[in-house]
């Protein structure tokens, strides 16, 4: 993990939030490369969940919702973690992070676990009283459930169908840590997939496989992923079943994504609390039913971390070690780098023209400083899949050398064919 944290800081993937003020616990800022990687992860999720499916549509609901939403969902009363305080050093610990009654930090005695609510509270409007209390959402899911009727009426979708959302969530986690793994402000990619009761077990299985396939289709190693079914005593209050997709992070197997069968809990709760019936008319049985829902819920930040860890490779290269971020081209912050062999004018002009043309289609960087070997290394370390070198021969033959990151093989390509060459390789259709 230290290498990933150091690389992230040094090359501009992730910085501490408010770093010049000493940071702000459990909050992180994404730098120029990090924001590209994060956007590419979200784009890849949206493409597979919404764009390529007939049965899923998207929404973007507000972060601040009517506080009654959180009463209905059970979050105000029950969204809490058991915490113990150390009587000696006063540190506060999540009770499921240690065993026994001894402080993991100083060995002092710990109190009996008490429940701490994880909701971030704020006030809306000029008054700071109980009537103006609002919450920052702790999950994006509820913004989907409260829009169930709006989406059904505007899209006329038939069961099974899903509603997807990507957005920020906030939890007042008592213990944060492991870099961006657990923070207080993070992003989620959530799908609520509504199904007929009785078909829910089938769809749960379907989504477990579909979500594992998504990670591996983007290059994540299958041996670093596993499924872990929750025992009945660890299931959330709303769930009939839940399995985590775990990734083998440096601190051990940990949750990357949860896939729960939430039954009809949420729609029924919102029907009860709002007075608006959230049902579906089943043409076949001519009955109004409350659909069950399968919820694949992934963390954007955890996915970014897992993709970074999985891609980071050190391999021997001549007398040295080459650090390469073997990110899938779809996730790589830059798709290509244009590198003139010399800073001399005719080469630089030609390279800048190629750069200007390619960046209309993709994020492409340009670098003319230091030796070509060093520039290749710099691009390898940030995961740029292709380096396009413009050399003196290019001026005569209108060709460039394209170097592939992982194999380091080089091919001579006509300038007019660079786009056609890169296109299928950047989508992953061609290696
Ligand atoms: N709507 C269901 C739900 O929110 P969850 O298991 O609490 O379920 C889903 O969260 C995913 O959100 C997790 O698998 C994880 O990837 C991400 N996540 C949850 N809490 C997080 C935190 N404090 N920091 C970063 N990611 C978090």
Which key phrases capture this entry?
single chain; 7-stranded mixed β-sheet; globular; binds glycyl-adenosine-5'-phosphate
Helices and strands, with pairings:
Layout: H1 2-11, E1 14-16, E2 28-30, H2 32-51, E3 56-58, H3 67-73, H4 75-78, E4 80-85, E5 92-94, E6 114-117, E7 120-123, E8 133-136, H5 141-145, H6 148-155, E9 161-170, E10 185-195, H7 200-217, E11 225-229, E12 241-249, E13 252-263, H8 265-274, E14 280-282, E15 287-289, E16 292-299, H9 300-311, E17 312-317, E18 320-325, E19 336-340, H10 345-358, E20 364-366, H11 372-382, E21 386-390, H12 392-397, E22 399-404, E23 410-414, H13 418-427
Parallel strand pairs: 3-9, 19-20, 19-21
Antiparallel strand pairs: 1-2, 4-5, 4-6, 7-8, 9-10, 10-16, 11-12, 12-13, 13-16, 14-15, 17-18, 21-22, 22-23
Helix pairs in contact: 2-9, 3-8
The structure holds glycyl-adenosine-5'-phosphate (GAP).
């Amino acid at each position: 993990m230290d290498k990933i944290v150091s690389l992230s800081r040094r090359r501009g993937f992730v910085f501490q939030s408010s770093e010049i003020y000493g940071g702000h616990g459990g909050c992180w800022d994404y730098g120029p490369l990090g924001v590209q990687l994060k956007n590419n992860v979200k784009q890849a999720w949206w493409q597979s969940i919404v764009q390529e499916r007939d049965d899923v549509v998207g929404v973007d609901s507000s972060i601040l919702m009517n506080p009654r939403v959180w009463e209905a969902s059970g979050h105000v009363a029950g969204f809490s973690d058991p915490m113990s305080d150390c009587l000696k050093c006063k540190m506060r610990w999540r009770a499921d992070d240690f065993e026994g009654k001894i402080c993991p930090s100083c060995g002092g005695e710990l109190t009996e676990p008490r429940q701490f609510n994880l909701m971030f509270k704020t006030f809306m409007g000029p008054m700071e009283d109980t009537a103006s209390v609002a919450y920052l959402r702790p999950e994006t899911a509820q913004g989907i459930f409260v829009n169930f009727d709006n989406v059904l009426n505007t899209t006329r979708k038939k069961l099974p169908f899903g509603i997807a959302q990507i957005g920020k969530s906030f939890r007042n986690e008592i213990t944060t840590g492991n870099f961006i793994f657990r923070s207080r402000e993070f992003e989620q990619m959530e799908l609520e997939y509504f199904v007929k009761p009785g078909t829910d077990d089938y769809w749960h299985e379907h989504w477990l496989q579909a979500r594992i396939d998504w990670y591996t289709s983007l290059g994540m190693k299958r041996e670093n992923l596993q499924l872990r079914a929750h025992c009945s005593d660890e299931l959330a209050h709303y769930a009939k079943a839940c399995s985590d997709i775990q990734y083998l992070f440096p601190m051990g197997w940990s949750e990357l994504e949860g896939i729960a069968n939430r039954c009809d809990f949420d729609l029924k709760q919102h029907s009860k609390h709002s007075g608006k019936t959230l049902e579906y008319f089943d043409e076949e049985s001519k009955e109004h039913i409350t659909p069950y829902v399968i919820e694949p819920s992934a963390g954007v930040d955890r996915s970014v971390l897992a993709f970074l860890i999985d891609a980071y490779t050190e391999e021997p290269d001549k007398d040295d070690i080459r650090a390469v971020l073997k990110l899938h081209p779809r996730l790589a912050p830059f798709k290509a780098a244009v590198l003139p062999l010399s800073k001399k004018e005719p080469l630089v002009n030609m390279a800048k023209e190629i750069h200007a043309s390619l960046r209309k289609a993709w994020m492409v960087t340009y670098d003319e400083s230091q030796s070509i070997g060093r520039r290749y290394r710099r691009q390898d370390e940030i995961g740029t899949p292709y380096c396009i070198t413009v050399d003196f021969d290019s001026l005569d033959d209108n060709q460039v050398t394209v170097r592939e990151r992982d194999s380091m093989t080089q091919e001579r390509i006509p300038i007019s064919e660079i786009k056609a060459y890169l296109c299928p390789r950047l989508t992953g259709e061609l290696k």
